[in-house]
Queue: 4 jobs
Job 1
Amino acid sequence: MSGKKKIIIGIAIGIILIIVWMQFINIGEVLSYLKNLKIHYVIIASVLYLLSYFIRSIRWRQILKPVCKLSIKEVYFTWMAGFFLNYLIPIRAGEFAKSYFIDKVFDSFSIFLVIALIPLLHVNISKPLLILIFLLILVFIVGVGILIISTVNKPLVVKILTKFFFFIPRKFKTKFFEIIEIFVEGVGLFKHHSKILPSVIGLTIIAVLIDSVYFFFMFRAFAQVIPFPIILFGYTLIYLSYILPCPPAQIGSNELIMVLVFSVGLGLNKEMVSAVMSFAHLLTGIIIVVVGLISFSYIGVNIADTFRDVNISEMENDFKDQ
């Protein structure tokens, strides 16, 4: 399937998710919350959002240390350029894919924060949310297991994973197993560089905390004072959900997941949380595009050529799979 077709399908799925989301809410009530928006809190939230991704770029720099050395400025703009590209066209290829997968493995460590917060929350957590937490714990255990075994016996992990996913249709197997090998090879980098693990985990915790402070101020922008532990719990779950495939620019998926976590799961007003997430989604989308364009300019890469190269790469991979 070509890159353009994937984008079209992704956008169609996003539109379906938006329609599903709109079935849960009253649009009129959502819009009413926008009338009292406090801009100074929006500015604070925007700075914190950028700061959280600066911390993640530093973490990425630590992950890449074994294979290349980049300055802080270089790694930030390179990371944001890749993030912007992946935001618009979800891609998983080459060295960027390797670092992306490893990056997401460490994002999953934040599940510990979620578990630790459960006793501190003075709310009744719904069964669907408990099921989600259980599944994320399972994903974390599997991810850490792969991380550990890959440092000892990479071929064994590849063999186990390829057998486990035996049910994948033949036409997709080649590409899928290539992804498995990229992932395992990436996590195997830590075999001789285990000293960077503490700093990578520490940066992950800092980034998660800054994310939650950002979202705390987004709630304040709508005159909502929500206890920080609830925001930390809910937004960490939402960010963990980004590990899963999503439509381009996360169309529809953000809003729907926000309602499922904060409203269905934690009992907050669904129109209020929908207003917060809808505005936050628009705001962060603008930030990602603006910073992404600046980043492409800084690293001296023509964005039009990049998009064309992505489409060509997709076509070549499709040809190989036929």
Note: Residues 92-98, 312-322 have pLDDT under 50 and may be disordered.
Job 2
Amino acid sequence: MAYTATALDLSSFAYLALQRAGGGKPRIISTYPSQWVAHYQKNNYQTLDPVIGEALRTPEPFRWGIDFNSKFTSMAQHRLFEEAAKFGIRFGFTVPIHDGHGPIAALTFSVDQSRPQFERFIESHGRVLQLMAMYFHAHTRRKLASVYNIDGTCLSPREFECLEWAARGKSAWEIGCILGISRNTVAFYLEGAKKKLGVRTIVQAVARLAAVKRKQQN
């Protein structure tokens, strides 16, 4: 995506996926300056950003820039845009992603100044950028599916897998036979899962997993 954005003379891009839990940090993949991304996340700007607010309201792509101030509802939002401008993020084209497979996401292509070629490209190829954003989102979702989350705690694929088999009543030896790894390796992964979840027993870890699954089903 970075290569394509550069080839199309789009200064940078940012992909932001909101978490299911209201207070969770968004997942960001971006070529924006790292200082800005860190500042954005530290201040939970996704709750304030009028671009994200617009992406939540509409599934249609939209442009934004200086004239986007009609969407501002507070001085804090004005300051957010002013801070972003210092990092060269002044104008953009945002593609909201409402695919029904999880939290809403958005992919933004941005430039540091309003350029005629940028405007012309958006006008003639906006749907192409929308398609690119959708493919990028689908690819990212698949790639990051290896990160398993239990109430905000991320387990490795093996830790999650071993815990799921333990939840089905399988012993470490049985899980090892199923996964083709040793009993000691299974014990290692289960121990890692317990530590990350802050519990002392496998039973407690399994209970946490079951509670999350019930919540997702509801």
Note: The CA atoms of residues 5 and 12 lie 6 Å apart.
Job 3
Amino acid sequence: MHCTNIVITDLTVATMKIQPNVQLGSEKLNIIDMTGVSGNKSLLTVSNKRKLLLLDNKTDTVLSEIVLNAKTRSTCMIDSQQAATALANKKIQFIKVKDNTLEDEKLLDVDVDVMGIVSFKNTIVVSSHNPPGVRIISKDGAVIHNMDNTTIGREMFKKPRRITATSDDSIYVADWGTHEITRLDSSLTILQKFCDPLFESPCGIIALNRDQLLVCSFGNNSIVQIRPSTNSMTVLLDKQHGIQKPQSFCFCKKQKKLYVAPGDETTSVLVYKIT
């Protein structure tokens, strides 16, 4: 999930009004990740059905879907017409996203159990559970930088999940096991750590711009904003707004809508209009 450079001064003073849920049909879906596509669309990564859904954010209807050959873990946009999905069989599937259709392209082998993925400066950054760590790879799979518990000689990560990147070349990693958000530079050097009781078992993470990040606090049933410049953290949405075990989310810039999916299997997605 990459920085979208949304022109919003501060979400802590914005109005977030709940909209009707997006109904996705009758079958239960485990929406493990969501990512914005250029225009009024987003991709939903559905783990239990091994598929991606292309959602129209203007009409809130599903335009297309594609079934892959393994459980899906996380998805990012490489450019305006190509996505990459991390699969549970240590592969990355590239997907062509054109108009209202999804088509599978090349399949890339990786030697780690990828959990999170983001496009970064013409490379790909992935997080993994085994071993727990982060690495930067080329689009052909060559390792450019690697940082895990074995390379640094101590337990830095436990269960890193989703990752995002910002326009100042920072990489942010949400670690489900340590309950921390770690900020890294383009060489995977640690720049900053965020740890607060406001987020527990953080999962999804998106960057609205270089100084506004949103985190799904799965354990605290909330969406938390982080401001790296001031090291401040604020709850934006919680149980009273309908948030239950949030696992993934994305923001549609054109529609100014925040979509939130729960950690449990569901038939719908929550929608919040931001003004």
Note: The domain at 11-274 is CATH 2.120.10.30 (Neuraminidase).
Job 4
Amino acid sequence: MSTKSVMMELTATVLYRSGLLEALHSGAALLRGGAGFPILTFHRVNDDDDPFMPAMATRLFAARIEHIARHYTVLTVEELVARLREGRVPRKALALSFDDGYRDNLTHAAPILARCGLPATIFLTTGYVGTPDVLWFDRLALALKKTRRARVQVPGMAAMELSSVPERLRALQATLRHFKSLPDAGRREGLDALVEELEEGQGESPKRLMLSWEEVGVLRGLGFAVGAHTVSHPILSRLSREEAWREIHGSRIAIERILGIRPRVFAYPNGGPEDVTPTTVSLVTEAGFECAVTTRRGLNTPTTPLMELRRGGPWERHLPMFAVKLARYQQTGA
């Protein structure tokens, strides 16, 4: 760790332990008012310590949530959007969200949130709920993790060495970037061919990674709202209009049919500026969603388009540094 990083952590620790952070944050919140709020994003929470399937450790998640519970007003995305429309967003408000529908959101994250009395919104990739299958990027990660091959060549990419864990992780990141840049049909065909080559008949089914519909019902009982995240997690801008409609509308219909509720909020897969186009926004609106979240950082204010809500936040493992950056983010969105 650099000297600058050490000094920043020491300063954050002093602010955090002295109570000055809370005083500064409260003063800034009074000056800014309660017009905006951030949405924080989570995916997996578990203690597997698997670099191919990265997750936030349970203790780290608990420390963050306990800090948030002490210092912030937490409401669901849907509730905060409703309050934003009415001009009554609480000061120091934020929302918590979980993407994809991983089972550890129930087994590891939900008990911590319940203990702290905090709600959250979970965005389901509906085609995987209640199945033994894994999302396409997890399928790739598992294939690279388990393969016996020492080298692989993906069409359109340089050959990649697979003799060590660091090499395999670099190959995973490079291959993900490549596949995300392709039209969806090319991505699916390329992934199928690569996984078949890597597995060489040695494929092994992982433990069940995704929630069942019954478990989603349990999460609802623990204070989770349910949103949609497509059927199969493609990048919508890589699809035709008809294909994108089936993904967006299909995920809404599945939730409505199985859970008996109409989801009000949608999450764009990948969610960057190049992934959220006027066409995808129009389709999400047409499908009946009231709002949608991207992965663009920033605060949500009365001027933020409701179909392009901002989401993000600090990721520091050091709790005082996380607290300092979250306080700044909640005030400025930066």
Note: The two ends are 23 Å apart (CA to CA).
